[in-house]
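debug: dumping io for the single-chain case to check the tokenizer round-trip. Nothing else runs in this session.
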Amino acid sequence: MPATSEAIELAVAAAAAADDKKALDPLILEVADVLAVVDLFLIVSASNERQLAAIVDAIEERLAGMGRRVLRREGTPESGWVLLDLGDLVCHVMTVAERAHYELERLWGDVATRDVLTGAPAPPLGRRAAVPAGAEVAAADGPDTGA
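debug: decoded output
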């Protein structure tokens, strides 16, 4: 079953709020066909903890203006990952390093995506999803393997 039009509208609004705070690499994943409890994931990256907090606040404020409140909030900006559960939409706001580490795009690579500006359907990323921009910074901080 595809995502509801209300969930799509919320995801696009949340992506726009994140964009207002210069979020990186927004992505909407349609997980409705594989998860019974949520329709969409919005994943965005932040350069640092302060920006992450600003993005989370902007998303909460924008969606509250649409009459939607966060049902559950997990994580902190200091942890590098904040999850906002709105029922049919779950927003993952992550630092670039955390996003590169957990690779949610690869984990959910088989699901359809949605355009972050319009909500229109888009093709799946595939299991070998591209590394989000900025992730090379996190990788460069790791040990040199000589490869």
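debug: round-trip ok. Residues 135-147 have pLDDT under 50 and may be disordered.
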